[in-house]
Amino acid sequence: MLNLERLRVLDALARHGSVSGAAEALHVTTSAVSQQMAKLEREAGQQLLAKHGRGVRLTDAGRLLAEHAARILSQVELAQSDLEAQRGQVVGELRISAFPTAARGLFPHALAALRADHPQLRLRSQELEPEAGVAGVVRGDLDLAVVLDWYNKPMPMPDGLVKASIMDDPADIAMPVGHPLADRAEVGLEDFADDEWITWGEGEFCHEWLLFTLRAKGVEPQVGHRAAETHTQLGLVAAGLGVCVAPLLGRDPMPQGVVTVPVRQQVRRHVYVVWRADADRRPSIRAAVRALQKAGADLGQFAGA
Interhelix angle for 19-26 vs 30-44, to 10°? Predict the structure, then answer.
């Protein structure tokens, strides 16, 4: 009989394309993945992996069994969700990701409250950019992901996901205290056509949003520096190296030497959480969504939003 946990390893190999990728997703060593696959090959009576350069690839039999494994694991997850829903208890393990400023601004409050209210729930969290978080939910590596849209640029969302709003996150422009516009009550993005921008990594959703928004205003941005984390960006601003967009979420404490000024046509991010529709009945999902929404509401009230 085929072992379910070994089928889970095969499924991870098929989705991630490498032994190291499967090991990282399953939080085990590469040696453990190789051992489990060797045992699964003995159970199946066929070779499932073949050498491919320095790595491995699935054989025809491996791909066939991986397709079955994906369906089996999906049915097992659905069964677990139904059982959890029937019991009505917030138990088991919950895997959740958030982009960096949401992990900093929401997770400490939300996850601490969730643990206090539901001590039998095991929480596993990590920082991931929005696209990676969505992909993790789709693959089944994550149960929930906190992601975002910008007010003028939504993030593409695959079918089969459910989402719930957490908060709207206003953003200002951060600049050095000696900047000519630092004493303004409000500014426009186009006012910084001659400034160097400190932005996110190449290809990241937020970086692409900034380019899209500035170009729509007739400004070709001068990108001087890139950093994934808001506090790194603000540190570069404090050093006089440029300006950046500074959302409220997760930006405190502000470094000395930085001034934030509201944007004339308000800039906001819409922060929300996504999960798979087939897990919608799980009490742990619902409890986590409520905790995140409570943390978002508290932060919004504090900010006067």
Answer: 100
